Amino acid sequence: MNKLVSGLDLEAAVRATTAEAAVLRGETRPDLVRDEVLAELFATTATVRGYRIAYVSEKRVWTYAQVHALSDSIARGLVRAGIGPGDVVGLWMPRGVELLVAQIAITKSGAAWLPFDADAPVERIGVCLADAAAKALLTDEAHRAPAAAARCPLLVSADLDDPSDETPLDPRGRGLTADHPAYLIYTSGSTGTPKGIVVTHRNICHFLRSANEVYGVKSDDVMFQAASVAFDLSMEEVWVPYLVGATLFVATPAILGDVERLPAIMDAVGITILDMVPTLLAMLPREVPSVRLILVGGEALAPSLVERWEKPGRRFFNTYGPTEATVVATAAEVRAGETVTIGRPIPNYSCYVADESLNPLPAGVPGELLIGGPGVAKGYLGRPDLTAEKFVTNPFPSDGTDPILYRSGDAGFQAGDKLTIEGLSIEVLSTIGPHPFRTRLTFERPLDDPMYLFVSSTPTGVRPFSMPPLGETIEMPMPTGAR
User: Which pick of 50, 110, 249, 338 has the fewest CB atoms within 10 Å?
Assistant: First the structure.
């Protein structure tokens, strides 16, 4: 447990409160809990709003109708290859439209996708594919040769596109249900051994609807799409726009690598939504007037960044949520001059604060944050012991909507009607004398997912950081504006 809790007289604190538990609940919205799968969600938008622009790149635009047709064709190729409900298909391609279309195609086939960052080592890809018993790895022509080293049956998206095949796609008819996996996300965890988190269609479809009740993304919005599909933030960035028929501006590695030009590009395209980690937002050199909504998460949000970007007419949300709870569990609308918190649970989610023995803690007393609701994932693939440890039967008085809670391992406390998370996974100790863009970090506990920590040191502007030994102080560069 985090050191924040270790010195407290927890038993005395529990005895002193008459509250049943330090619990916060999001708005109760049973209408958002539906029997649906991602393919149906996308097909509905493509049918109703097929004329709207789905993707904009530097070279062309794609309507929802065009994306629907192309992803259908690739999905039929996957079905011809024997892919269907219950299968896992790896997804490894560079950032771009082809990658996003392939992701839709996999879900239309009924299979779950297992995404990898374009720069992921092929050895790690092979380990994860084997652990997930993946039936195939879907890639592009450029990755055909290196992907062979993953030792998994290989499929290339261009080879699957056969316009002459007009066989109807019917994943439901082939047995797909909302409780089948929609995707798997592998994280390294504190041991360095990859663990696969299984997220169902029911989990993710509910999240998309619940989150957008808070965010209010609309069909005329333009989202700056920059997140790696291996990072579950991308599900919010990509699929919430699909839900309403909004547009994605698909940023290439070259665009992301030229930070100084990003605001001008965003101006030209008319970006209205930014969804990114705070470090990337801090790297933008100037204001983007067309942006009406900012969503940040995955790292602690500095008040100075709120001061810089919050303004009248613009909504700015700080979000929090582990992958195991499906992207985001809480959100706070932040304002300059106010305390930054992680806010309240989004609709149908719940959050509890407890000690190591799962005794409820009163408001103001820090403890471990537990998350409940329709977003709690099925657990870790093939890891029953770890699943039992982290996904626990709800021991608290409840309304029955959160029978299983995810033990986040994050230390937080309830302050009024909001939650504060203590430092997330790292503590910034100090800057180092003559090096204003370097900082010294000490890790007090294992970092659950190294994708949560980024440094500006590659052509793409970000890279995951390797976990050092606990208690060891290390130095690392900090991007301009992130001090």
Answer: 338
Q: Are residues 77 and 223 in the same domain?
A: yes
Given 348, 368, 397, the domain boundary residue is 348
> Residue 366's pLDDT is what?
86
Question: Are 403 and 317 found together in one domain?
Answer: no
> What's the pLDDT score for residue 93?
95
| C-alpha to C-alpha distance for 113 and 87, rounded to whole angstroms | 9
Q: Which domain holds residue 73?
A: 30-348
Alpha carbons 197 and 328: distance in angstroms, whole number = 15
Q: Are 439 and 475 in contact (CB under 8 A)?
A: yes
Say if residue 222 is in the same domain as residue 254.
Answer: yes
**Tokens 């799962």 sit on residue:** 358
Rounded Cα–Cα distance for residues 424 and 412 (Å): 9
333 and 212: one domain?
Answer: yes
Residue 415 within a domain: no
Terminal-residue alpha carbon distance, the chain: 28
Cβ 136 vs Cβ 153: under 8 Å: yes
- The span from the CA of 219 to the CA of 69, in Å, is 20
Tell me what pLDDT residue 168 has.
Answer: 92
Q: Are residues 317 and 273 in the same domain?
A: yes
Buried b (16+ CB within 10 A) or exposed e, 33-54: beebbbbbbbbebbeebbebbb
- Tell me, yes or no, whether 125 and 190 share the same domain: yes
In a domain, 77, yes or no: yes
Predicted local confidence at residue 21, as pLDDT: 52
pLDDT at 469: 43
DSSP conformational letter for 416: T
- Beta strands 22-25 and 195-200, pairing class: unpaired
Query: b vs e for 326-336, b when ≥16 Cβ sit within 10 Å of the residue's Cβ?
Result: bbbbbbbebee
Per-10-residue mean pLDDT for the chain, 483 residues long?
A: 29 37 88 98 97 94 98 98 98 96 98 95 94 97 92 96 92 97 83 84 98 98 95 96 98 91 96 95 96 94 95 97 96 95 95 92 88 96 96 93 93 74 39 33 36 30 38 40 29
What is the phi/psi pair of residue 106, to 5°? Answer: -60, -45
